[in-house]
């Protein structure tokens, strides 16, 4: 279930076969932070349009990195049964041949993941490398030019490399040609790094990985080494170096080529990180981002939008998390007369998830996500088709009943309910607003107003020099009551025709035009007399 750098390469062929056989795949990610607090006005707001929210999130995604990616592969094995292979991939940015990657840690996010048992040692010591297309192009050019380098800046990495070089240089002085020695206890990426560094430093050595954290070093003549470098048995060929440095990006490209339906929960940030870390740096254009994601994954389903539909059509209680939705769908008799929901069975290597809840572990959340999708789709199919539902519906039947939700990703706290990745977004609709008139408090900023009303969860936007708009889904009557006699802040319900600067400007212009017309009429009438 847990895959790090050391085991990733040998598991990749099996992962590829399972993805190609899958009905769909579900995904979840964990990152070092969500919203950067060091950026001004970066908090999500009810005022945000999708493009405004994308720009805010883009700046945060560029600062934070992925620590874990969960992938649940759902395959229909036989009649009305899906088998799930769920994986946790620990990730760490590639340090080979590209500029050293910098990322930010959010204290609250780190504390949150630690609370749920996240193993940061696996992230740091055995994280699978990855890179996007821009970084790969730089590495490819440097490999061809022979100007690559390893960005190992930690003391631990330097100690490993120094120890290996010291052992080999001490040994090689007295060694004869064809003599060999073994370097041991090399973890994950160090197996490749040590070989590359030794070959670059010493022209009369040859290296081969032996597995089990070992590398064989042989003393050879320069001529013999040249023959070995041109052979197909060289484990440090440039294409293999590139394959190793790309790491998890190889699996991402398998997902892209397979074009299987991709399922997530509140997955906007997941999609943005996928684009930025494995495909290309996020573009400035929101529309370009949407086009790119749709080309990569033509069928996306966000279970958050699906659950909203289930709540409207079925007697479904209010829930606040993916785990709660899973529990309700598993325990409730929401469809007593229809055919039973498909059996969802965890594969033998993933049985821990059947025995123990592991919220906010990416592989577990991916499993929950795919399970919620299947159970919700079955419920909606039974409601729409009634007695005509067959006992063993195909997954394509589920996709048909989910058609209105395909490529609609939930939009949290904003002007639209979802982002449409295969078309135009719907028009922005905001809840009724309040307006704050400021009197006797000069220089008041938008941030100060936000802090004033923060306890009531209001979002703020300046309307004019002394006026601010407030948006919230609740607490309006409470605020109107509490601020009725405030000495500096007068709060009232916003009326567009009364408070909008553009409407007021238009009325003023209309008044001036009407006044001039009346004056001209009066003067014209006087002169005619």
TrEMBL record:
Regions crossing the membrane: none
Protein name as it appears in the record: Poly(A)-specific ribonuclease PNLDC1
Family in the record: Belongs to the CAF1 family.
Any single biological process term in GO: developmental process
Membrane topology classification: Single-pass membrane protein
Compartments, record wording: Endoplasmic reticulum membrane
PANTHER family per UniProt: POLY A -SPECIFIC RIBONUCLEASE/TARGET OF EGR1, MEMBER 1 (PTHR15092), POLY(A)-SPECIFIC RIBONUCLEASE PNLDC1 (PTHR15092:SF22)
Gene behind this protein: Pnldc1
Cofactors that this protein relies on: Mg(2+)
Protein function: 3'-exoribonuclease that has a preference for poly(A) tails of mRNAs, thereby efficiently degrading poly(A) tails. Exonucleolytic degradation of the poly(A) tail is often the first step in the decay of eukaryotic mRNAs and is also used to silence certain maternal mRNAs translationally during oocyte maturation and early embryonic development. May act as a regulator of multipotency in embryonic stem cells. Is a critical factor for proper spermatogenesis, involved in pre-piRNAs processing to generate mature piRNAs.
Naturally occurring in which organism (per UniProt): Gymnorhina tibicen (Australian magpie)
């Amino acid at each position: 279930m847990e895959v790090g750098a050391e085991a990733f390469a040998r598991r990749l062929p099996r992962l590829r076969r399972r993805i190609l056989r899958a009905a769909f795949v579900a995904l979840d990610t964990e990152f070092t932070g969500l919203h950067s607090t060091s950026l001004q006005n970066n908090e999500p707001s009810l005022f945000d349009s999708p493009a405004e929210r994308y720009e805010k999130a883009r700046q945060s995604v560029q600062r934070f990195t992925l620590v874990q990616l969960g992938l649940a592969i759902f395959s229909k094995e036989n009649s009305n049964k899906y088998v799930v292979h769920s994986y946790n991939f620990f990730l760490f940015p590639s340090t080979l041949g590209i500029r050293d990657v910098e990322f930010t840690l959010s204290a609250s996010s780190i504390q949150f993941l630690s609370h749920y048992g996240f193993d940061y040692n696996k992230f740091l010591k055995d994280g699978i490398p990855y890179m996007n297309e821009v970084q790969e192009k730089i590495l490819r050019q440097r490999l061809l030019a022979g100007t690559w380098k390893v960005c190992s800046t930690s003391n631990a990495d330097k100690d490993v490399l120094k120890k290996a070089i010291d052992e080999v240089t001490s040994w090689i002085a007295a060694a004869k040609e064809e003599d060999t020695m073994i370097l041991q206890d090399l973890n994950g990426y160090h197996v490749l790094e040590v070989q590359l560094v030794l070959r670059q430093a010493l022209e009369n050595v040859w290296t081969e990985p032996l597995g089990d954290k070992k590398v064989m070093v042989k003393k050879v003549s320069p001529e013999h080494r040249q023959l070995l470098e041109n052979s197909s048995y060289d484990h440090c060929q440039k294409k293999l170096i590139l394959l190793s440095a790309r790491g998890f990006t190889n699996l991402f490209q398998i997902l892209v080529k397979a074009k299987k339906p991709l399922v997530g929960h509140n997955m906007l940030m997941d999609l943005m990180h996928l684009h930025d870390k494995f495909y290309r740096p996020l573009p400035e254009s929101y529309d370009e981002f949407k086009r790119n994601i749709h080309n990569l994954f033509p069928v996306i389903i966000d279970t958050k939008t699906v659950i909203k539909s289930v709540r409207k059509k079925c007697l479904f209680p209010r829930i606040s998390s993916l785990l709660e939705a899973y529990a309700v769908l598993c325990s409730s008799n929401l469809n007593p007369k229809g055919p039973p929901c498909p059996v969802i069975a965890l594969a033998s290597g993933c049985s821990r998830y059947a025995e123990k809840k592991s919220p906010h572990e990416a592989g577990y959340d991916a499993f929950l996500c795919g399970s919620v999708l299947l159970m919700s789709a079955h419920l909606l199919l039974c409601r729409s088709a009634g007695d005509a539902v067959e006992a063993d519906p195909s997954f394509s039947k589920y996709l048909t009943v989910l058609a209105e939700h395909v490529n609609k990703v939930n939009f949290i706290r904003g002007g639209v309910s979802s982002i449409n990745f295969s078309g135009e977004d719907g028009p922005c609709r905001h809840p009724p607003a309040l307006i704050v008139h400021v009197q006797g408090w000069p220089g008041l900023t938008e941030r100060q107003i936000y802090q004033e009303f923060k306890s009531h969860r209001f979002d703020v936007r300046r309307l004019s020099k002394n006026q601010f708009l407030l948006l919230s889904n609740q607490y309006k009557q409470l605020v109107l009551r509490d601020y009725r006699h405030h000495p500096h802040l007068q709060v009232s319900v916003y009326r567009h025709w009364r408070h909008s600067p553009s409407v007021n400007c238009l009325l003023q212009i209309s008044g001036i035009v009407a006044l001039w017309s009346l004056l001209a009429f009066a003067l014209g009438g006087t002169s005619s007399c």
